[in-house]
Known about the structure:
214 residues; alpha/beta; Rossmann fold; 5-stranded parallel β-sheet; 9 helices
Amino acid sequence: MIRRLILLTLLSALCTSLQAQTVIRVACVGDSITAGAGVKDPKNKYPARLGVLLGAEYDVKNFGVSGATMLDAGDKPYKKQKAFQEAIDFKPDIVVIKLGTNDSKSHNWAKKDDFDKSTESLVEAFQKANPKVKVYLCHPAPVIGKGNFGIRDEIVKPEIIPLIDKVAKKMKLEVIDLYTALEGKPELIPDRVHPNDEGAGVIATTVHAAISKK
């Protein structure tokens, strides 16, 4: 009887260990939209909803930072935030990068020449932490009308999105088109920049579709 209990305990520990080894770590990197600004219920933040959609085999963590820029020369570079190092230490298997919205502010976009290099170095940092990592670059969400907080759609759509596509092509990364997913749905972006709970759900399902097709 004792031997049987010991054997069962060992088998249980082995199964737990194997399960832990197979969990896929997903890092959601981004700005206030990833952090959850505009969402009333924390359970509806897009990374939280993505975790539910992906299921128990995935460990999804939110590394969003309000105001963060892709530009290293921006007023709040993501790579200089605490969340960046935490995301690197997480050693994710999958990284979803949704930055660029705050870069459209005039004082940030005045330094746009290094946007592609800043994007490449961010991706390379995650590739260094885990050489097998799968990185997705996201098109920013659309900015409604005249925008808000200095954020401008006339920069996001014609300038930032093509640069993201350029880096994705160069580095052979997949792009998740959040712009198109939310385009024409102003009711989901009530402050013209931050998607609400329903809008965050659209982001989650769009990201989930990209990840799950693999």
